[in-house]
Amino acid sequence: METKIPSTSNVMSTLLRADLTTQWRNRKSVIMVLLVPVIICISWKSLVDKLGGPFVLANCITVGLTAIGLMGYSNSIARDRDKGIFQRLRVAPVPSWSIMISRLIVQLFMILLVTIAVFFAGYYFDKITVSASGYVLSFVCALIGGALYLSLGQVIVGLIKNPETVSSTTRLVYFAFIMIGMFGELGLLGKQIGEAVKWSPYGTVKHIISDSLHPATWDVHSSVALLVTFGYTLIFTVLGINWFKWNSR
Amino acid sequence: MDNHNHGIVLQVESLNIYYGTLQAVKNVSFEVRRGEIFGLLGPNGAGKTSTLAAVEGLLEPKSGNICVAGYDIHEKKRYARASMGVQLQATSFQPELTVSEIIMLYAGVYGVEMPREKLESILKGIELNHAASKRFGELSGGQQQRVSLVIAMIHNPQLVLLDEPTTGLDPQSRRQLWSRMEAMRANGHGILVTTHSMEEAEAVCDRVAIIDHGQIIATDEPQRLIDLHRNVPAVIEASRKGKITLEDVFIGLTGTDIRS
């Protein structure tokens, strides 16, 4: 009975395979995450001329990112923690960070998927075209924005242990984010709320994605929005990691 | 069974665990030897789970030493964990994964090569070769327990920790699990099992420790514990049919009050 320590790369690839398989088996929730921003994209066809293609695409992508971070990530973490799946993995000779990194990689994959789905819907239904550099930059900004929502999801599972409460809280926050975010951005909720939304996690993410889709419009405000996005992500990550407990009991 | 010549696979010394100001485990010491099934018995909230969590390295004790196969759980955590196999109380696997996928996952996590023939042989060994592509969530309680046990043993560990392994199992599944535990013992593994079932402790454990209010109050072979305490009034009072059992000793030592 020799004691053998597995290599970290082997552990990571094994965990990633299992997490991707789990995500694939939860196809219904993946489709739901993709469907909402695609439907918004299609239904906003008439607004493309008025608001501009980048505005519409950025809003749709931001809604998708919100769903991934707040609904997909936090709910899967809360469920697996409650079922003892993390505890079982943690008593194996694997570094705890590898368990979370594997989960986050799956979510990054989801972010790419949502972004592609919105681009496809935007092109196919709304005839929105973007330059090659716009596509590349917006993928990068979608990943940065997605990281913000994942860290916000981490805060929620850090604060709340019960998976049902996590689920209802994330639904509420998601609904509040997309409703206040979208209507606030459109100026339908008044000037003050519109200004607050602009610098909220919704507004800054939408701003950087929108400007990255049309790189010529990137200005000092875009850079400030990017910095604020990084700031939110840092704060939420620190709080989320500090408050997080691997055990739900 | 004489274990004195066998090596020690788990050494717990002067373990003290606190939750805030509440002391959950008080100066607990015991050891598990190779080829031994050691039972940790106690009422709810007695400190069994906390002790087990500390052995697994999931909980930081205030003081005390824990060595698994010679590795200190805090200084050499990954080596200590690689030397132990764990079966947790909860059915702690992703319900979306199939039985084969779960075995492959944990083989990878423990760095064990798992060619198809070996996987098939493992599945046959736990009589689940027909259910290889079934999802874990679709298995019965007994089948889940068998998968859980095979995962605990996948890397041939020196120490196996079983946390209330027969809870919720029917008598057939329970007997089958006992046979598997005895086979593990015969292969030289040291087994630490927590259980509420005195029948189980009496049937399979070589030695047991009774823990109550965070302290070990008795450690010995089940039959010796019965012999030592058969004349204690509280034990006689607990006896139901004239014959003193381990459960009578347990009740006699820990009292009849229901714990939360």
Taken as a percent bin, the fraction of beta residues of chain B is: 15-25%
In total, the number of domains of chain B comes to 1
Series of H and E elements of chain A: HHHHHHHHHHH
Q: Which percent range fits the helix content of chain B? A: 25-40%
Q: What topology, given as strand order, has the largest sheet of chain B?
A: 6-7-8-3-9-10
Instruction: Classify the oligomer.
Output: heterodimer
Uncertain regions spanning at least 5 consecutive residues of chain A: none
Give the class of chain A from helix and strand content and strand pairing: mainly alpha
Could you characterize what this model shows?
The complex is a heterodimer of chains A (249) and B (260). Helices cover 81% and strands 0% of the residues of chain A. Chain A is mostly helical and 249 residues long. Chain A has one domain. The model of chain A has no long low-confidence stretch (mean pLDDT 92). Chain B has 260 residues and is of the alpha/beta class. Chain B has one domain: P-loop containing nucleotide triphosphate hydrolases (Rossmann fold, 3-Layer(aba) Sandwich). Chain B has a six-stranded mixed sheet, with helices on both faces. In chain B, strands 2-1-4-5 form a four-stranded antiparallel sheet. In chain B, helix 6 links the parallel strand 7 and strand 8. Chain B is globular. Chain B starts with 7 loop residues before the first strand and ends in a 6-residue tail after the last helix. At the A-B interface, helix 1 and helix 5 of A face helix 2 and helix 3 of B.
List the helices and strands and how they pair.
The complex is a heterodimer of chains A (249) and B (260).
Chain A: H1 8-25, H2 27-43, H3 48-51, H4 53-83, H5 85-90, H6 96-124, H7 132-159, H8 163-185, H9 191-198, H10 201-213, H11 220-243
Chain B: E1 8-19, E2 22-33, E3 37-41, H1 48-56, E4 63-68, E5 71-72, H2 77-82, E6 84-87, H3 99-109, H4 116-125, H5 141-152, E7 159-163, H6 171-186, E8 190-195, H7 198-204, E9 207-212, E10 215-220, H8 222-229, H9 233-238, H10 246-254
Parallel strand pairs in B: 3-8, 3-9, 6-7, 7-8
Antiparallel strand pairs in B: 1-2, 1-4, 4-5, 9-10
